[in-house]
Amino acid sequence: MVRLISDSELSASSVVANSTMNRGRGLCGVNSYTRELGFDPAAWLREHGGAAPGWLDLCSGEGRALVEAARVLPAGAELTGVDLVGPLVPLPVPPPALAAGARLRLVTAALADWVPERSYQLITCVHGLHYLGDQLGAIARAASWLAPDGRFAAHFDPESVRRPDGSGAGRAVLAALRAAGFEYRARRHLLLLDGGRPVALPFGYAGADPSAGPNWTGQPAVGSYYHSLVAPRRRVEL
Hints:
Layout: H1 7-10, H2 33-37, H3 41-48, E1 54-58, H4 64-70, E2 78-83, H5 96-99, E3 103-108, E4 120-125, H6 135-145, E5 146-155, E6 161-162, H7 170-179, E7 183-185, E8 190-194, E9 203-214, E10 220-228
């Protein structure tokens, strides 16, 4: 029997406080957001974000991609990074982004406890869901923070979601996500949503397993356990 823990306990796990997650990953190049997502976030914002685009990066690590994007985005852009551990090295003072007129903010907080003050045209989570307990809750909240014409893009591993008995729930979860308007690109393990909206998924969070082992990236990840909120149909005897 797998021992499931709460998200408050999970935050103290060595698997979650992963010092290599998004450390040093920049905007473009070999080790970059552009390569992992299949599109350049800054270029996407220049095309779709208007005069004052907003980008929220969940599990942002050092925030280097945000810093680099702020240098090429228009003045008035607002870029926010949220990470449990936060930057391990200080940003330049003053940050280059601020000198250009863009607002750059890196927040150290658990995603389950943080709420933004605005909506965003782009919300990303590059290999960050792997370290969250309630992944589906984070996905639903992100969808509600997205602007009506915005895009959400996050790496998601269906193998990481399970039922309390240990059986896989990935197929049922993907079906529910697609019914809610998400697209899943299996080759990249990428979950996409175009257009912010309220999302209610038929699953209740049961707890997390920090000892689930490596996922497809080869890095240790968290197992997320859910029970179904949909009551089974009763069989009617004729």
